[in-house]
TrEMBL record, chain A:
The lineage of its organism: Bacteria, Pseudomonadati, Pseudomonadota, Betaproteobacteria, Neisseriales. Belongs to the binding-protein-dependent transport system permease family. LivHM subfamily. This is Branched-chain amino acid ABC transporter permease. It is a multi-pass membrane protein. It comes from Crenobacter caeni. One of its GO terms (biological process) is L-isoleucine import across plasma membrane. InterPro entries: ABC_transp_permease, BCAA_transport_permease. It is found in: Cell membrane. PANTHER family: BRANCHED-CHAIN AMINO ACID TRANSPORT SYSTEM PERMEASE PROTEIN LIVH (PTHR11795), HIGH-AFFINITY BRANCHED-CHAIN AMINO ACID TRANSPORT SYSTEM PERMEASE PROTEIN LIVH (PTHR11795:SF371). Keywords: Amino-acid transport, Cell inner membrane, Cell membrane, Membrane, Transmembrane, Transmembrane helix, Transport. GO terms for molecular function: L-isoleucine transmembrane transporter activity; L-leucine transmembrane transporter activity; L-phenylalanine transmembrane transporter activity; L-valine transmembrane transporter activity. GO terms for cellular component: plasma membrane. The chain crosses the membrane at residues 12-35, 42-62, 68-93, 105-128, 148-168, 189-217, 223-241, 248-268, 283-302. It holds the Pfam family BPD_transp_2.
UniProtKB/TrEMBL annotation, chain B:
Its main location: membrane. Keywords: ATP-binding, Cell membrane, Membrane, Nucleotide-binding, Transmembrane, Transmembrane helix. GO terms for cellular component: plasma membrane. PANTHER family: HIGH-AFFINITY BRANCHED-CHAIN AMINO ACID TRANSPORT PROTEIN BRAE (PTHR30482:SF10), HIGH-AFFINITY BRANCHED-CHAIN AMINO ACID TRANSPORT SYSTEM PERMEASE (PTHR30482). The chain crosses the membrane at residues 14-35, 47-75, 95-115, 122-140, 184-202, 235-259, 271-301. This is ABC transporter ATP-binding protein. It is a multi-pass membrane protein. It is found in: Cell membrane. GO terms for molecular function: ATP binding; branched-chain amino acid transmembrane transporter activity. It comes from Crenobacter caeni.
Automatic annotation (TrEMBL), chain C:
This is ABC transporter ATP-binding protein. CDD domains: ABC_Mj1267_LivG_branched. GO terms for cellular component: plasma membrane. PANTHER family: AMINO ACID ABC TRANSPORTER ATP-BINDING PROTEIN (PTHR45772:SF7), CONSERVED COMPONENT OF ABC TRANSPORTER FOR NATURAL AMINO ACIDS-RELATED (PTHR45772). The keyword Heme does not apply. It comes from Crenobacter caeni. GO terms for biological process: D-alanine transmembrane transport; L-alanine transport; L-isoleucine import across plasma membrane; L-valine import across plasma membrane.
Length: 309, 360, 256
């Protein structure tokens, strides 16, 4: 029982991070029908920049408290990622908006490779540990333990996601985003500046990615040029799981995926009589995805796309 | 257009054919003689990638099914060959069993993957195939315990080279007093099989089956309403694409003598897709060009970047491997921006592309 | 007594809460031109989709030429001998006119992947036969001159004809046409009418959705009227035309 609750908690932490990243994928997909393969790399850049800024501030010896260090690092990372997201869209996607569908997919992959290689240039190929300012206080819940930091991650993710949903549902920007995702041409006719909306979508998604990058960095206490790849893949899987293009779906898919993964990793040994071990963790994401899509081809919360014949 | 009815081959056609045959026959000697044997090896790999890209092109280019896990079939072919012809299980089966068996298994995997995803469209299909590819890789990585099936991350070593009637492709041979390295032998073997794959793909494209694929790709509802069995024709595309992948995988295993899960990652799948898209999806010459360019260019970069830096700056500014991948990523972006329809698009695809530009 | 070709009974098709077809039954006899009319949204196209296997009906029965086709897959339906055109033309745009019709021969030919790769004499002969038959059908509908044009580049009238040729390529016993005259000028409509009569004369039964009442009255042997998913009348044109329920259905809703 303890293991169960412990794995649920671990899954919630992981799942909130997935959800935050999944939102970035799903927003872009909802608006332009594009898999932004480079989003995982934006998350990586977010993590890297935060760590660099925090380390630099510490080296400068200003004696700032840890929270201030992290906040400043985060602000710089968010700004950097917003700029990055904006640039990626302008350079690699916008010129291809009317091209065949696979063209932007290939440029996205190209951008992904470029960002990874640039990260190697700047930060090297090795794991970089998070500066030793993180608090490791543990809280006990129902016999399971969770660090305060992880609690913060969960709460913050939920708050940010709630905020985003509010923006999309209640503000003028949100309305324009929804209109654009329904039908860009009509939205354009109604006076929505589609280019601005698409840029805004990338910028917001990238800001969320930067925050997620920080969370990944604090949770694993290290960063690496390749860290965006797997987590980006999982988050995208989560977005598809929830029904791509659907914000609530991304959140649900992310959290569900996190929990399934950590429960799976916790129990797979017992379930298979020790035949499969916890290093099969990565399989769950994909296995669950495949099973869900077979039964609900447009995801858990996705609209059923009936073929109109 | 009239490809299935025999036409008298024009003199020009015959001349082109003979010329390209001669060029392909002497190519390894020119390349090997000028740049060294490692470049002949690159040629061999280019041929393997041509087979892979042509296989994926059946799925993506002809049938319009976006597959991001294509490398899984290459892996199935390679591991079938590797496991049946290496000390790992102390087996030494001949290639004429292992190679077709690998192709067959790959095709079966193609159908196994295809069946559950029949109803999925576009990007949903892409992500599921991606997941499937990753699952295969993870299994290859971990199936060394409790029963050692795949030898895990260490991979399989000492795989038997292909041998025909006592003639081993893995060893140097002497003809007319000249010694030929194994990479030359393999070049001709791969070339022969590549030609077979090209013929297969070409003939499929211009057949009843090929037409059904195009019809399905353009409008699956109308295709069904015209009597095409969508399920069968989709599975056929998956199976035939996988078959080419499996053959290439078996060849790869015997050629390298060593395989490990690392060779079968997502990046490889993406690479093959990039070859197809960059070359010109659906167009066989385009796909061949894409595969050759994307195999050769990174190798050229590998050779050029280091010395170039030394010559200009007198020292290494950027790690050559790093610079190579950086340029490669940039090249992908730039090439797509300049020619989104690919280097050699098919007439049909070009038309589709123009449609998309006109539409909203 | 006329021979029954198609018989449906109690066909129900729901989309969520919407009942698009409610217990529709009808019988089509061999050799007739059977008309289906009704206001927009009445369920005519939905009925076509059910008859051609594109939609799975929720209830009812469906036999065709003695074969049970209830919930049959589209390719089975085509194999049994029902072919159709679409209200909003669905040609394979990036294929030539000839290739479009050749696709229609798919179900009546056999060559598989192996034959395609080996190009054995049988496959080659079949392929030639497919092409010849397709050319013949293009001539039959009168568009030989555009055989090698991409379908998307054809004029509207030619596209409609091409769709009919493609459907005929499947050798149907019943040809179902969904508003084939929509958007045509009077001359084109007249030519289309002649084509339909020619098709019927060749022994193919025709099921026709059309709004042009004059055309329908002159062409159809019998007519059924759908309204809100229900069949409200069926019979020879003169009787149907005078049916009060039909008049109400047409006057009660805004005409298009
Ligand atoms: N795939 C579908 N999903 C939901 N509703 C549909 C679908 N197809 C048709 N309908 C609805 O069924 C009704 C009948 O439509 P249709 O058969 O196209 O009418 P008609 O062809 O007579 O004009 C309409 O209300 C239409 O909106
Ligand atoms: Mg209709």
């Amino acid at each position: 029982m303890d293991i169960f609750i412990q794995q649920i908690l671990n899954g919630l932490v992981l799942g909130s991070i997935y959800a935050l990243i999944a939102l970035g994928y799903t927003m872009v997909y909802g608006i332009m029908g594009l898999i932004n393969f480079a989003h995982g790399e934006v998350v990586m850049v977010g993590g890297m920049v935060t760590v660099s800024v925090v380390s630099a501030l510490m080296a400068a010896g200003l004696g700032l408290p840890p929270l201030a260090l992290i906040l400043i690092g985060l602000m710089v990372a968010v700004a950097a990622c917003m700029l990055l997201g904006f640039t990626i869209e302008r350079v690699a996607y916008r010129p291809l908006r009317k091209a065949q569908r696979l063209a932007p997919l290939i440029t996205a992959i190209g951008v992904s490779i470029v960002l990874q290689q640039l990260a190697i240039l700047v930060w090297g190929r090795n794991y970089i540990p998070f500066p030793p300012i993180l608090d490791h206080d543990v809280i006990q819940i129902f016999g399971a333990s969770i660090t305060r930091l992880q609690m913060v991650i969960i709460v913050l993710c939920l708050a940010i996601m709630g905020g985003l949903l509010l923006v999309v549902e209640k503000t003028k920007l949100g309305r324009a985003m929804r209109a654009t995702s329904q039908n860009p041409a009509v939205a354009g006719l109604m006076g929505v500046n589609v280019n601005t909306i698409i840029s805004a979508t990338f910028v917001i998604g990238s800001a969320l990615g930067a925050i997620a990058g920080l969370m990944v960095a604090t949770n694993y206490e290290q960063v690496h040029y390749y860290m965006g790849f797997m987590i980006g893949l999982k988050a995208f899987t989560a977005a598809v799981l929830g029904g791509i293009g659907n914000l609530a779906g991304a959140v649900a898919g992310g959290i569900l995926l996190g929990i399934i993964e950590s429960l799976g990793a916790g129990y797979i040994g017992d379930l298979t009589g020790g035949f499969l071990g916890s290093h099969y963790q990565d399989i769950f994401a994909f296995a669950v995805l495949i099973v869900v899509l077979i039964f609900r081809p447009s995801g858990l919360l996705g609209e059923k796309m009936a073929d109109r014949a | 257009m009239n490809t299935m009815t025999k036409q008298p081959a024009s003199a020009k056609k015959v001349a082109t054919f003979v010329a390209s045959a001669i060029v392909l026959a002497v190519l390894p000697f020119i390349v090997g003689g000028t740049f060294g044997n490692s470049w002949v090896r690159t040629l061999d790999f280019a041929l393997l990638y041509v087979m892979l890209a042509l296989g994926l092109n059946i799925v993506v280019g002809f049938a319009g099914l976006l597959d991001l896990g294509f490398i899984a079939f290459y892996a199935v072919g390679a591991y079938t060959f590797g496991l049946l012809a290496s000390p790992h299980f102390s087996l030494d089966m001949p290639f004429w069993i292992t190679l077709p068996l690998g192709a067959l298994f790959a095709a079966m995997f193609g159908v196994m993957l295809g069946t559950p995803v029949l109803k999925l469209k576009g990007d949903y299909l892409a992500i599921v195939t991606l997941g499937f590819g990753e699952i295969i890789r993870i299994f290859l990585n971990n199936l060394n315990a409790p029963v050692n099936l795949t030898n895990g991350p260490q991979g399989i070593n000492l795989i038997t080279p292909i041998e025909v009637a006592g003639f081993s492709f893995g060893k140097p041979h002497e003809f007319f007093g000249i010694t030929f390295n194994g990479v030359y032998m393999y070049y001709y073997l791969f070339l022969a099989l590549t030609v077979l794959v090209v013929i297969m793909a070409w003939r499929l494209q211009h057949s009843r089956i090929g037409r059904a694929w195009v019809a399905m790709r353009e409008d699956d509802i109308a295709a069904a309403a015209m009597g095409i069995n969508i399920r069968n024709i989709k599975l056929l595309a998956f199976a035939l694409g996988a078959l080419s992948g499996g053959v290439a995988g078996g060849l790869f295993a015997s050629f390298q003598g060593f395989i490990s899960p690392e060779s079968f990652g997502l990046l490889e799948s993406i690479m093959i897709l990039a070859m197809v898209v960059l070359g010109g999806m659906g167009n066989i010459p385009g796909v061949i060009l894409g595969a050759v360019v994307l195999t050769v260019v990174p190798e050229v970069l590998r050779d050029v970047i280091g010395p170039l830096q030394m010559a200009t700056f007198g020292k290494m500014i950027i790690d050559p491997e790093n610079a190579r991948m950086l340029l490669f990523g940039l090249a992908l972006v730039v090439m797509m921006l300049v020619r989104p329809e690919g280097m050699l698009p098919s007439k049909r695809r070009k038309a589709e592309f123009e449609d998309a530009k006109e539409g909203v | 007594m006329a021979e029954v070709l198609l018989k449906i009974d109690g066909i129900v098709k729901r989309f969520g809460g919407l009942v698009a077809l409610s217990e529709v039954g009808l019988t089509i006899n061999k050799g007739e031109i059977y008309g289906l009319i009704g206001p927009n949204g009445a369920g005519k196209t939905t009925l076509f989709n059910v008859l051609t296997g594109l939609y799975m009906p929720d209830e009812g029965s469906f036999t065709f030429n003695g074969q049970n086709l209830f919930r049959a897959k589209p390719h089975v339906v085509v194999g049994a001998g029902i072919a159709r055109t679409f209200q909003n033309i669905r040609l394979f745009k990036e294929m030539t006119a000839l290739e479009n019709v050749m696709v229609g021969r798919h179900i009546r030919s056999k060559a598989g992947a192996l034959g395609a790769v080996l190009r054995d004499p049988r496959t080659m002969a079949e392929e030639r036969a497919i092409r010849d038959k397709a050319m013949e059908l293009l001539a039959y509908v009168g568009i030989t001159e555009v055989a090698h044009e991409f379908a998307k580049n054809l004029s509207y009238g030619h596209q409609r004809r091409l769709e009919i040729a493609r459907a005929l390529a499947t050798e149907p016993k019943l040809l179902a046409l969904d508003e084939p005259a929509a958007g045509m000028n009077p001359r084109e409509t007249e030519e289309l009418k002649a084509l339909m009569e020619k098709i019927r004369a060749s022994g193919v039964t025709v099921l026709l959705i059309e709004h042009d009442v004059k055309l329908m009255m002159g062409l159809c042997d019998r007519i059924a009227v759908l309204d809100y998913g229900k069949k409200i009348a069926e019979g020879v044109p003169e009787v149907v035309r005078r049916d009060p329920k039909v008049i109400e259905a047409y006057l009660g809703v805004a005409h298009e």
